[in-house]
UniProtKB/TrEMBL annotation:
Alphabetized Pfam families for the sequence: YceD (PF02620)
Protein name as annotated: DUF177 domain-containing protein
Matches recorded under InterPro entries: YceD
Organism for this UniProt entry: Ohessyouella blattaphilus
Amino acid sequence: MLMNLSKVLGENHNQVKEEVTVESQFFAFDGDQYPLIANTPLALEIEYAGESKIKVKAKGDFEIIAACDRCLEDTPINVTVEADKLIDVAAPEEDEIIKKDGYCLDVERLVKNELFIGWPTKIVCKEDCQGLCGTCGQNLNVGECDCEDTGLDPRMSVIRDLFKEV
Ligand SMILES: [Zn+2]
Ligand SMILES: [Zn+2]
């Protein structure tokens, strides 16, 4: 949603304090899409901070589907957004989150940027996730594959073959 900032930037510099709904179905980072499956309303506080600046506080919890680092299976993760930012609405570098046309705050864009900051460094579907076989790609949580011999010295297989012939 776009939050109009005219109240905050106008003569009376009114504070905005609202719970807003984040409407994104997913968030996209680096070409990958991460579905949003649950979230609390975003508690948003915006106040005038002099000149063309505003102070934005935003807080909310998001449950998102991401890939397990080991087995790549869909894994729900919780990311808390807790932003406290000073934004110069006239600065070109803020163009992503401040729409200059009418001065609106792009709430989804703000959340996306903040999610990126709060993103977990490690995502595992479960602590003992076995990951994927490095040879055939089999998900080892689901079942074993036939690649167990690959770690062995190839010369050993010659000896094994000799035994087979006996
Ligand atoms: Zn996993
Ligand atoms: Zn394998």
